[in-house]
Amino acid sequence: MAKRIAFLGLGNMGGAVAANMRKAGFEVVGYDPSPAAQEAARELGIPVFDSPAEAARGADYVCSSVPRGEHVRDAFLGEKGALLTAKEGAVCFDFSTILPEESIAVAEEAAARGFHFLDAPISGNAMIARDKKIGFMVGGDKEVLDAHRAVLDCACELLDYFGPNGSGLRMKLITNHLVASQLCALAEGFTLGVKSGLGPDQMMEYLYSSTVFRVMNTRGRGLRNKEYEPVKFALALMHKDLGLIKEFARANGASSPVVDAVQEAYQGAMDMGLGSLDQGVIREWFEREAGLGD
Known about the structure:
This protein is an alpha/beta fold. It has helices at residues 12-23, 35-43, 52-55, 69-77, 100-112, 126-129, 142-148, 150-153, 167-195, 200-208, 215-225, 235-251, 257-271, 282-289, and strands spanning 4-8, 27-31, 48-49, 61-64, 91-94, 116-119, 122-123, 135-139, 158-163.
């Protein structure tokens, strides 16, 4: 008999993941307050119930994809929460992006009631979720994950385990931090280029093949290992160039908040006497600011 999954939150992402679980042979039922999401789920062959508790009745697994921490808590622990009716010892996978502390609190209460709760936020978007090209970043009991990973494997391309409850969400927030920061930097630099007279197509074609798109490969290992010598590009030289970029932006009437913030960090590292080392040494300034110094 097929294992039953109650899926809470059947929007674009949740609906795509739930559909793939159904295709893999699980019995999938769901809940979502949105009439549009309900209709889309029914078209995919997923029965929809009026509350998380009704959907989760007798479920072996409870999965969720909802917007905020309070929604996660309500879906599992509320007056009509899923853990009121799910099968004893059911495994819960929450795909929502919320604060790690919010997720840990739900996990602890779920454990007190005899359930397993793991955070498994998603890397990717709803479009690629349909083709199972997403990844899951998991935090929680590894033995539980290993025993039940088939629930996730059927809907993803990559599955990475990061540690105890909350660890998957920590990695998710770091991932989104880097994506958003890089996108802002790209948009700021690209806009400055256009305003200064460079052609958009020519710029982007160059950037695709430049070091800009290889920085994780060329710089990531040295940053991780704190390898600041041999010097590939001295921090002092980039500090000087950042000053030039700010002057360039001002001359062209372009906003440069990303460069302003970056220059502040580089100036901090210069003040620490790190200018002669490779610019990856900027990590030392961030660690000092975070209170991670020796």
